[in-house]
Amino acid sequence: MRIALLVDRFGKRFGGAEAYGVELARELSLRHDVTVITRTCDSDLAVAHLPIRVSRRLPSWIRVLYFAWRASQLARAGRFDIVHSHMNGWAGDVQVMHVTPVRYKRICAVPAWRRPGIWMNPRQLAYLLLERARVAPRPDKRIVAVSQLIVEQMAAAYGEVPLTTIVPGVRMAPAADAARRTDTRARLGFGPDHLVCLLVARNPMRKGLPTLLDALALLPPHYGLVVVGADEAARAAVMAHGHAADRVRLIEPTPDVTPYYEAADLYTHPTRNDSFGMTPLEAMAHRLPVIVSAARYCGFAGYLTHAQDALVLEDPRDVRQLADAITLLGVDAGLRRQLIAGGEAIARARSWERVAARFEAIYAEVLAARAARGG
């Protein structure tokens, strides 16, 4: 089968949605002819690429409009059997919704008096119209949400839109390399007696870094924090925390996060807005106990049981609750073992092979519907 995969940025270092595209393409390419249509690529995956060049000098909404138009040209009828899109726009037989719908965020969640101004804003209007084109029904089209949270937001924004939920997959990590763990911790300035928390995020400030820093200040000196994906905002936030800053290690975005998962003792994800949250799942695949925000903040938590698979924070802004959860995992070995076992079971049930198989079933539905229409 000839499959076109539409994605703005193709590479694991760009974030969870982008990693989803890479891993799905990796699995599908074992059985199909996959071509990635993208603006930016940073992956060594051996699949064909069709780049879309657009000037960074243009406003973001014009870049998005141009990408949607150019992608529709490259994926025109007859060139591919399936156009699988992770982007807003009208090109796509299968549309995967990764983030909070624009209409939900910009229309449904704002006061009525502000809505006329949004409709008169060219930038907002472009995003709203592209999303409407994306979810417009068609017999030979399917829309996929990555979590139940997205399903609920889509229903609030668009009413009863037929949706299939396919949560992200994960690859189980091999047993941790003890020597590499020791070396990585030493390089980071942590010894065997430190308890190292980990946060992996493209935008750490949105994934709970401020709460984590406040919680760290309440913990004893042997507790440390590693932030992978640190940007300038994260660096400024750490510097502003004074004495706690010397227990924080900031790592720039990298496609290879495995050494840091190995070096950590637990994973902390007090996010305030994650449609799913792939990094807590990756942490479970690396056999780390996980602390994560409740389902209304992090879609992944909707698939977890508190104190069995992870510690679930009711309010990710509650510094004391987060500090207590970290402390509990630091002193309760039995709970750590329980969460590691529960998290590992969750991860094993969510392989990329299963994710790809579900998409292949959807592709078959699309092709059958197209044939029924005489397409």
UniProtKB/TrEMBL annotation:
Signal peptide: none annotated. Residues 14-170 form the Glycosyltransferase subfamily 4-like N-terminal domain. PANTHER family: D-INOSITOL 3-PHOSPHATE GLYCOSYLTRANSFERASE (PTHR12526:SF510), GLYCOSYLTRANSFERASE (PTHR12526). Keywords: Glycosyltransferase, Transferase. Residues 182-342 form the Glycosyl transferase family domain. It comes from Bordetella genomosp. 1. InterPro entries: Glyco_trans_1, Glyco_trans_4-like_N. This is Transferase. It holds the Pfam family Glycos_transf_1. GO terms for molecular function: glycosyltransferase activity. CDD domains: GT4_PimA-like. SUPFAM superfamilies: UDP-Glycosyltransferase/glycogen phosphorylase.
